[in-house]
Specification:
homodimer; Dna Ligase, domain 1; two-stranded antiparallel ribbon; 5 strands; DNA-binding
Chain lengths: 160, 160
DNA sequence: GTGGCTGCAAATCATTTGCACTTTC
DNA sequence: GAAAGTGCAAATGATTTGCAGCCAC
């Protein structure tokens, strides 16, 4: 089961139906639930994780439908795709934010971006920058604490 | 065929044999060529692209060998893995640098990082930052120019 | 009513793995 | 000579697709 979000500040979001209808897409049951599931967590769920959670509410949805919808919701900008080394993930937080990846447990945390920060340094000439994103790597508090005690720990988030 | 690198400033690199032997790994023909191929370009080749290029020099290498070696070279830190939406890519540039992704043609350019830049803004408390990486998105010069003329263009880099 | 959407199952594509044979050290 | 590495082919896993029926508009 996907845990609820912890303390993420989210941008106020328009009702889903609008953006969809504007492009001739329908707001169906599965689609709505898939969107709700991705938005309800800050764990950046994998496709499999979204599928599992959606099935708890709609036991008949198929994996294909989840794939199709995540793809189309991402194309509409209603969720964001994240390519991680372990595979594709989805981020329902549409507010501008960066990410922190714990190199020990693999969890990815949202880092809210303080107001409209300019790109951290000017890149090469000739390029028109439209946006940027910062990925931090390090160790989260829990893993730092655990590192002191010799208790074995999960190497990576299992993706659910 | 993988184009040569353009103008990337690379960190001076130790001869491949050392880092490998230090970990009980052998410097074989395929392994050496795979490393050379990834290092010789700044195009961030996919596995398939590396395979194609390596085969031009060693026609008998198998795809499995390329996978195994890229994985192990990445584990040794001799190349870097990049998870992109289109799939796994490899980066032979070991100097600290950021990336610029052209949203039109999909190409990823290396952005050299001016000296040791501190993280662009302090992230959340409780996290120990070990490194960070910046991804820029926008349009490259070529695509900006082409946008003026109504010539159709490749939507995305084909990954080779 | 109709076109988009769905579930299902089969097809495709990427990646990994088992094994007998080579090669490096 | 032993262990690591290789080629090959088969296995696994992830994602996509075809299609007949369903449902939102």
């Amino acid at each position: 089961m996907i845990p609820k979000k912890t303390s993420a500040r989210r941008a106020p979001v328009a009702p889903p139906g609008e953006a969809l209808r504007a492009r001739g897409l329908r707001l169906t049951g599965p689609r709505r639930v898939i969107l709700e599931v991705v938005r309800a967590t800050d764990r950046h769920p994998s496709v499999a994780a979204v599928y599992a959670e959606v099935r708890r509410r709609l036991p008949r949805v198929s994996l294909g439908t989840v794939y199709r919808n995540l793809r189309c919701l991402a194309a509409e900008g209603l969720v964001r795709e994240r390519a991680e080394p372990a595979g594709l993930r989805f981020d329902g937080n549409l507010a501008p934010h960066d990410h922190f990846t714990c190199v020990t447990c693999g969890r990815v945390l949202d880092i809210p971006r303080r107001r409209v920060a300019p790109p951290p340094h000017p890149p090469a000439p000739g390029l028109r920058i439209m946006s940027h994103r910062v990925e931090f790597y390090g160790r989260c508090g829990a893993c730092r604490r655990r590192a002191a005690a010799p208790t074995p720990q999960r190497r990576r988030d299992d993706g659910r």
